[in-house]
Automatic annotation (TrEMBL):
CDD domains registered for this protein in UniProt: metallo-hydrolase-like_MBL-fold
Top-level taxon of the source organism: Bacteria
SMART domains with a match to the protein in the record: Lactamase_B
Family matches, as Pfam families: Lactamase_B_2
Organism name: Methylorubrum rhodesianum
Protein name: MBL fold metallo-hydrolase
Residues in Metallo-beta-lactamase domain copies: 18-222
Length: 246
């Protein structure tokens, strides 16, 4: 599996990084690629890193904060107005996605949520603990603790015989162990070095639990300026454009 970081920033542009977006593609076993989260700046990142937007068949969302889902209106409008998309785009998100996505589109581009286009946008809302399968990819959500107007999830995604897990944004909850257990790649929020920030994950807490989680690889993302300045040794520190193959 090949995963490229299209964005690993926090909501506030720390380090000049794009908002959260991971792109998985380039496996012969997968019919096209998918995104994990699609933050407000993600279409710009898609262009910057040369990703073909029409190959993205699914966008999996952890939670409905703008830096994790706010890029969808632009991705959809690009398919309609620029890239000539015809294949459906599936959006798999937490309960509330079917309401929040058109609401975001209407605020940003009035009339866009009901515009005629040559492809369908299929929204699937996923409940924690109930796996969803789409495009050869199986995703299971776990409930996290991160208020965002809708349930916040971590995702365990299985594709082409590999597992990539992502905590999304959350403070420590025990289910992070299940999300990341033995994963080929665990992407985890590492917001601060050790300073607790409510509803976010600090590196000291995560590190204490790493032996129970046991991921094969760990990549830290959504880092504050202090984490960007002091990335932990021995683990992957996310950077925009970074490619991880596993
Ligand atoms: Zn968030």
């Amino acid at each position: 599996m090949r995963l490229q970081v299209l964005g690993c920033g926090d909501a506030f542009g720390s380090g000049g990084r794009f908002h959260t977006c991971f792109h998985v593609d380039a496996s012969e076993d997968l019919p096209g690629g998918f995104l994990i989260d699609c933050g407000a700046s993600s279409l710009i990142a898609i262009r910057r890193f040369g990703v073909e937007p029409n190959r993205i068949h699914t966008v999996f969302l952890t939670h409905l904060h703008g830096d994790h889902f706010g890029g969808l209106p632009w991705l959809i409008l690009d398919g309609q107005l620029v890239s000539g998309r015809t294949q459906p785009l599936t959006v798999v998100g937490p309960p509330g996605t079917a309401e929040r996505l058109p609401a975001a589109m209407e605020v940003l581009f009035p009339g866009s949520s009901t515009a005629e286009r040559r492809f369908r946008v299929v929204v699937e809302e996923m409940e924690a603990g109930r796996p969803v399968e789409t495009g050869g990819v199986r995703a299971t959500a776990y409930a996290m603790r991160h208020p965002s107007g809708a349930p916040a999830h971590a995702l365990r995604i299985e594709a082409a015989g590999k597992v990539v897990s992502y905590t999304g944004d959350t403070e420590w909850v025990e289910d992070i162990v299940a999300v990341g257990h033995g994963a080929d790649l665990l992407i985890a929020e590492g917001y601060t070095v050790e300073r607790p920030v409510k509803f976010h994950l600090d590196w000291a807490t995560l590190k204490r639990h790493l032996p129970e989680i046991g991921p094969k690889r760990l990549m830290l993302t959504h880092m504050s300026p202090e984490m960007i300045a002091h990335p932990p040794d021995g683990y992957i520190a996310a950077e925009d454009g970074l490619v991880v193959t596993f």
